[in-house]
Design goal:
Distance between the termini: 70 Å
Number of helices: 13
Radius of gyration: 23 Å
Structural class: alpha/beta
Shape: globular
CATH class of the largest domain: Alpha Beta
Number of strands: 14
Length: about 425
């Protein structure tokens, strides 16, 4: 009976998608967005029908499939990419790994706040270096000068799906005994030297917000090749508890009431024993179910992003007042967006251009926080940080760069409309 009812429900969900959601019109060209069909919806309903709802069979299946795709040993899903970053940095400050308050972590000044904020939340000191103007990635040539006796790690993002110079940064980490965290939140599917990004660092993070290469609605993941790191990340995600039972499961260790940890009474319930400073950052099985269906589409999504990037670059390259983000060998980007920078002497401002594009139905976005040290919360919270060298390129990104969409929902007609809109703007501005 259960199988028959489920089959009927799946059929109705599929019908609803085909007859309602798939026919909704689109009146503008988004900078990003989710692309899905009935399979994501069916999976989410299946998770609801299971009645588990928290971390369950879909979460386990997603973690295994994601690990297999990337070629890493461990994947730990969480409720957002921001939480993934918090978990990765917090793992370094755990008793097992041993970073301390006041230790320094080198990162790029131009990026997203939640790459930076976990360093601050854990009592570390972010040390900012500039980005490269052609890639918008951390400038690896500036890192050596930023290293001090308190430096313990580098935390860098593959900006907008464009891999940073992994070879050089890995070499610096090895030479100076530093940990490396790769922020891959924009970069699922990108490769460096044939390997997926996320396979080079001690830890790496992903986001599954609808803007990214795949989505769970909300959601994220931490991946690692270290058994110790995996154990610590899971513990911090699950309230900091010492127990590793799945939700709804008891006594996985076989000695639930036989532990003697901390200053607790001997035999204190292991399910309520906390060895780390933790949170509740778990993902739900609904999220994982949606993500599992998205993973099936990932290869086609990657191809579509690369195709759309190439089409936009070909279409817009005639405008010599503009510059576009570049990759450097052996990087193979999975582009999150199409970055456009205004060259000196172009004769117009970024705001004039983005305003025109927005009025014509082409959504634009900035390079996230720009030079993050200029954001108001740095002043409001009196944040302790350091800057190594100038941040001129970060300021350039803040004032002169933006991006438009390359996500799989972009069509050939969209590319044509984007080109014609740019051409009209250039004609009008003259």
């Amino acid at each position: 009976m259960d199988d028959k009812i489920r089959a009927e429900i799946r059929g109705l969900v599929s019908k609803y998608y085909r007859e309602v959601l798939s026919k909704k019109p689109r009146h503008r060209i988004p900078a990003s967005g989710k692309v899905f069909d009935e399979n994501e919806m069916i999976n989410a309903v299946e998770a609801a029908l299971d009645g588990v709802w928290t971390h369950g069979r879909f979460a386990v299946a997603f973690e295994r499939k994601m690990s297999s795709f990337l070629g890493v040993d461990h994947c730990v899903i969480t409720n957002s990419g921001s939480s993934a970053n918090l978990l990765a940095v917090s793992a370094l400050f755990s008793p097992e790994i041993g970073l301390n308050r006041g230790d320094e972590i080198i990162t790029a000044a131009a990026g997203f706040p939640t790459t930076i904020n976990p360093i601050i939340q854990n009592g570390g000191v972010p040390v900012f270096v500039d980005v490269k103007k052609n890639t918008y990635n951390i400038d690896e040539s500036l890192i050596e000068d930023a290293i001090s006796e308190r430096t313990r790690a580098i935390f860098a993002a593959h900006t907008l799906g464009n891999p940073f110079n992994v070879e050089k940064i890995k070499s610096l980490c090895k030479e100076h005994g530093l940990f490396l965290i790769e922020d891959c939140c924009d970069a699922l599917g990108a490769r460096y030297g044939g390997r997926c990004v996320s396979t080079f660092g001690d830890l790496a993070t992903f986001s599954f917000y609808p803007a990214h290469q795949i989505t769970m609605g909300e959601g994220g993941a931490v991946v690692t090749g270290s058994d110790v790191m995996k154990k610590v990340v899971e513990s911090i995600r699950d309230w900091g508890r010492d127990c590793w039972c799945m939700p709804g499961v008891d006594n996985t260790c076989g000695k639930r009431f036989e532990w003697n940890l901390g200053d607790l009474p001997e035999g204190y319930d292991h399910k309520y024993t906390y060895s780390r400073l933790g949170y509740n950052l778990k993902a739900t099985d609904f999220q994982a179910a949606i993500g599992l269906a998205q993973l099936d589409k990932l290869p086609s999504f990657i191809d579509a992003r690369k195709k759309n990037f190439a089409a936009l670059k070909s279409a817009l390259s005639e405008f010599d007042c503009l510059s576009f983000a570049e990759s450097e060998p052996p990087a193979e980007p999975c582009w999150f967006g199409f970055v456009i920078g205004l060259n000196d002497g172009c004769g117009f401002t970024r705001e004039q251009m983005t305003g025109f594009l927005e009025k014509n139905g082409i959504m634009t976005r900035l390079i996230f926080a720009g030079n993050i040290t200029r954001q108001p919360y740095f002043r409001n919270y009196k944040i302790n940080y350091k800057v190594s060298g100038s941040l001129d390129n970060s300021d350039y990104a803040m004032r002169n760069a933006f991006w438009i969409g390359v996500y799989p929902g972009i069509t050939e007609n969209d590319v044509s409309h984007i080109y014609e809109t740019f051409r009209k703007f250039m004609g009008d501005i003259k």
